[in-house]
Amino acid sequence: MENANRKPAKLFFLFAGICVIAIPFIIFSALSLNSQEREGAASQTQNLDFDHNGSVVFNAYDDTTGIYMDGNSTARTLDLYYSLRQYPGSPPYISHDLADEKGDAYECLSCHARGGFTQSMNRFAPVTPHPQHTYCFQCHVKPLTEDLFVKNEWYSVMPPRLGRSALPGGPPPIAHDIQMRENCIACHVGPGAVTVIRVEHPMRGNCRQCHVPAVAKGIFKRAPQSEK
Prior knowledge:
This protein has 228 residues and is an all-alpha fold. It is 30% helix and 2% strand. The protein has a domain at 53-146 and 165-215.
């Protein structure tokens, strides 16, 4: 019984001895680093992504073709844009054939990753907002019929209202969720974009430096200060 009681005590003293030996070495190594090494070690643990995955926008800008970025003609309208979706924000259905005249299946990202001109369709392919997701048919489908499987009372919701800038000429807030729509170029740049929501300064890249998500549900009111 006495030996059983001694075992935890031995483990405790062994642990304490290791700490006494190790702590001075840790302190000495930390103090021996120069300022540049300390700054480098600290920066490795920091999240330098200042724009909530804003690197996606910069990478998309570099990957998108120049002819698409410089294009300024489009036939797309907001009505067409929303007609391809069950509701604002939902993935659009595929509005074209899935194979060419020879029967070879199209590769979605061959056109929609960089926004090139599609000769067979005689139009620019809109850029996808999430090229990192390659299994497109998981969300985007090709309708086979316009008939309803079961009659229902489904109706869509109103699309977000455009504008709403705080001041005349100010940057409007982002009127939709950002998840799965991190790449602003997809809807707001190039000839594949709808004219009314197309920006004229895509080269600025960091869109959320000026445009912020509209998350407020009501007008901000300052609480009255208590009288002293």
